[in-house]
Sequence to fold (443 residues):
Amino acid sequence: MKRTFPVIVILITLSLLGLFIIQSSWLNNLFEIRNAELLNKAYQASATVTAKLNNTNAASQRLRLPKRGGLTFNPDFHLHLLKPPTIDQRFTFQDINQMMKQEFDAVGLKEIKFEFAIVGPTEEIEMATKKFSAEYWDTVLNKRMYLPIVPESASDFEGLSGTEYLVVVVPDFQKQAWASLKWVFAGAVLFMLIIIAAFYVTIRSLLNQKKLSEIKSDFINNMTHEFKTPLATISLAVDAIRNEKVQADPDKMKYFSGIIKEENIRMNKHVETILQAALMEKQELTLNLSELHVHDIIQKALDNHQLQLQDKGGIVELTLNAANDGIEADEAHFTNMISNLIDNAIKYSKDKPLIRIATHSTAKHIVIRVEDNGIGMSKESLKRIFEKFYRAHTGNLHNVKGFGLGMSYVKTVIDAHKGKIKVDSTLGKGTVFTVEMAFMKNK
Fold:
């Protein structure tokens, strides 16, 4: 795992970079194609409008000659040539604007904005949209198109009339081109984010698997050590009992049989701890609720730890001030929970343990406070203290044993009873666990 994990991260990272580069290139090419397509369609729509204007204009042109019996020229006679009417004389602005919109819609450019003008032969503007003049001079962002309006019959009368132009301006052309691709762009970004999220989840899962693997190894090592010691002691005690001299001495027989009994009880406790962890994993912690008095439970748990306290020269200060200590709880699990808090305070003490246990009442709850003068915990340990199999770093303390299940069990029991637990700690000074339990309801 240590070797493969960096390789997996590097390969996935390179794949993401490759996808990002390819997708960027694809979007850029798509944008260029879209630019050309929009420009071509805009020119096509404008050309169609120009063709319509050409045909209409051609049909309206007439060369009028005077009718006088025959075609004779005299000094008084002159050729009357009537110039063809201009576009603004034949059409209103609304007519051409409507025509432009229809043709732009017909080629699929309904959302594209445009400005246009009809320019006469002498470059005077015959008609134009409101923003045409402002947009016309911006050659950086806008696209301009010039389409001549030349009637088909104009070639027969070359020089008699000038050429008009339809000038079309598409403002913010590139911006509009990007806008037309917004859903494609949004889809590309969305799928890229999904791939990045999948990458993140994969890496996180791998890290969790690595962490679980390490926890599993630590758990197996701790479990092996915890079972190996009592088994070795029992084996030595059994060998001693087989000795004829020991068999002849009742006191020695009692001593060694007592050792076997104690180590057997110790192993049973370890087995029970592991079974409790299995139950918690399956969410099968069942409660046998009954009326309990917290002060009695605390006293009972302290009695069970007297030998440990005496062995370490520990002191316990009790301040049981709760006026009401009645709760509804499972006696076995609640006693084990208090016992685990006390055991934790004893184990993580540097020298002589000083444990302060106090209770007080609020309107609806009893608050239990267990404070020690131990090694304390770092911020990282505080965040993870209730994680299963997690064991805080103990510094120079090498005699702290266990599976890392105690605090996880405590949290599970309190949650099952719908209580609350809070932990405060200062590294090198000690830790305080505060448990809040609801009073027993009146029946």
